[in-house]
């Protein structure tokens, strides 16, 4: 009898899986053949590829404007047409206003951050956070950026004097974290002088996670929320939840006891939202856990994006000396014209720096994938395909960036492709921070932080390659994390360098 029971269970499971993995066939959508139980993510599950690379390869294996695939057991659509992707995120946003990533405000409040929140809850919180990222606020942040930048030069000058090989991803991360800790959270970290500072340690732990459970956690947050619901795993490991909660609680207590300690920063905004008692604002009141969730989101997202932008730019310039010299000449000219002063307006004049950053963000986008969820049935333009409510949408930024149809010679690092006079790319295919209402709220702050770091370093130092130009990415990571960091030789610039 037991044998028959097991046989019956096996048959039911088999038929159930057959049904799940025939979803796209039943709906008449071209799709990539899945593998049980991975769907189309076997390489990711086996920790052979990063999220971005795994989805880029699915992009390259398929054709047409869209293709059905399976994120483990979850049917999803991979958008392969850049114009359609832009339309989904911008023009037809009303059909795709949610990300479809894991968010459980009750059971896992640390998952309820601005990135993940759905619908009106996201819209109200976004509108209240937007003033923190205005041009006026960025100008206010400039002195802090420059103060931390001076510490960056202090750390690097003795290393450059000896011609040391330095992991510039590590140095960049420490600079970025010191800025973020101060301007966003009112904390004074010292990552530049202390690599084991708690702010640096928590980010290192996050990107250095290993093991089956953490792999499930990452996949569940971004691609298949059902995995977290099924396993009962939280969206963040305990140590990181504890770090964010302790930091937020300490800030609240300090500012309540010392009103003069209050400052117009991101933490104060969250505290004000938490205290909100105005009529109609009850839904917007944040718990301490939700405040901590947003603190942690901006810490991690801001640090990873700006760190990558700075260090990948230096990596590419070290392999393209002519581009480095051209950028250094632009920096030297700007500093000479302005008496050595770096200001918000001065940086706006630097067209080649803008081109370099755009090319870096094309080739190394922060998350490498964008998520959206269909919130009501959507007829794909010029197609018979109807995307059903609840369907997950995936946009591979790496796939689009490496598609010659949009970016000729995509492996080539060519800032000149963004020169408006000789433009050599499809503008509709460039959206490294997303586009439309759910684009990255902190993109201008991240770009400003990256610009200051690059201007300071390239005005003082030369960088030489010590590793191949082609970067290998750590597996099972959501951001693009280079294996072994980005080591390069750093040397002081001489007077003759500056006259080239």
Output the keywords.
500 residues; alpha+beta; four-stranded mixed beta sheet; three-stranded antiparallel beta sheet; 19 helices; 9 strands; 49% helix
Catalogue the unreliable spans. Answer: none
Structural classification = alpha+beta
Average predicted local confidence, pLDDT = 88
Percent helix range: 40-55%
Count the helices. How many? 19
Beta content comes to 5-15%
Gap between N and C termini: 86 Å
Largest sheet properties: 4 strands, mixed
Shape: globular
Subcellular location: Endoplasmic reticulum membrane; Microsome membrane
GO molecular function: heme binding; iron ion binding; monooxygenase activity; oxidoreductase activity, acting on paired donors, with incorporation or reduction of molecular oxygen
InterPro entries: Cyt_P450, Cyt_P450_CS, Cyt_P450_E_grp-I, Cyt_P450_sf, Insect_CytP450_Detox
GO cellular component, one term: endoplasmic reticulum membrane
């Amino acid at each position: 009898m037991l044998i028959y029971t097991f046989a019956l269970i096996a048959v039911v499971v088999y038929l159930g899986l057959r049904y799940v993995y025939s979803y796209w066939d039943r709906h008449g959508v071209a799709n990539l053949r899945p593998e049980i139980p991975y769907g189309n993510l076997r390489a990711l599950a086996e920790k052979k590829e990063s999220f971005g690379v795994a989805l880029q390869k699915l992009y390259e294996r398929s054709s047409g404007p869209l293709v059905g695939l399976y994120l483990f057991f979850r049917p999803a659509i991979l958008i392969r047409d850049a114009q359609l992707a832009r339309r989904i995120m911008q023009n037809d946003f009303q059909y795709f206003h949610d990300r479809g990533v894991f968010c459980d405000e009750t059971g896992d409040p640390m998952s309820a951050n601005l990135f993940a929140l759905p619908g009106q809850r996201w819209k109200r919180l976004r509108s209240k956070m937007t003033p923190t990222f205005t041009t006026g606020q960025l100008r206010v942040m400039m002195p802090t950026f420059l103060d931390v930048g001076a510490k960056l030069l202090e750390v690097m000058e003795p290393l450059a004097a000896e011609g040391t090989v330095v992991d510039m991803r590590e140095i960049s991360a420490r600079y970025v974290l010191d800025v973020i800790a101060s301007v966003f959270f009112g904390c004074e970290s010292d990552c530049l002088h202390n690599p084991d500072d708690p702010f640096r340690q928590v980010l290192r732990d996050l990107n250095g996670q290993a093991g089956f459970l953490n792999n499930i956690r990452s996949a569940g947050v971004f691609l298949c929320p059902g995995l977290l619901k099924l396993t009962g795993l939280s969206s963040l490991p305990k140590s990181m939840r504890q770090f964010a909660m302790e930091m937020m609680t300490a800030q609240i207590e300090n500012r309540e006891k010392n009103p003069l300690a209050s400052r117009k920063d991101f933490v104060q905004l969250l505290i004000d939202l938490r205290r909100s008692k105005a009529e109609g604002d009850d839904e917007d009141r944040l718990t301490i856990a939700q405040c901590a969730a947003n603190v942690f989101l901006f810490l991690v997202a801001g640090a990873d994006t700006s760190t990558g932008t700075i260090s990948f730019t230096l990596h590419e310039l070290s392999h393209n000396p002519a581009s480095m010299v051209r950028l250094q000449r632009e920096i030297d000219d700007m500093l000479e014209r302005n008496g050595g002063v770096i200001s918000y307006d001065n940086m706006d004049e630097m067209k080649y720096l803008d081109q370099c950053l755009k090319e870096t963000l094309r080739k190394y986008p922060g998350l490498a994938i964008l998520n959206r969820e269909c919130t009501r049935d959507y007829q794909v333009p010029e197609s018979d395909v109807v995307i059903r409510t609840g369907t997950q949408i995936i946009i591979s930024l790496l796939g689009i960036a490496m598609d010659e149809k949009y970016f000729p010679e995509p492996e080539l690092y060519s800032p000149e492709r963004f020169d408006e006079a000789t433009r050599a790319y499809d503008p509709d295919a460039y959206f490294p921070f997303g586009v439309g209402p759910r684009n990255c709220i902190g993109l201008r702050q991240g770009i400003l932080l990256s610009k200051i770091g690059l201007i300071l370093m390239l005005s003082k130092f030369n960088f030489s390659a010590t590793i191949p130009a082609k970067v290998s990415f750590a597996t099972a990571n959501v951001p693009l994390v280079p294996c072994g960091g980005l080591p390069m030789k750093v040397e002081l610039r001489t007077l003759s360098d500056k006259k080239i």
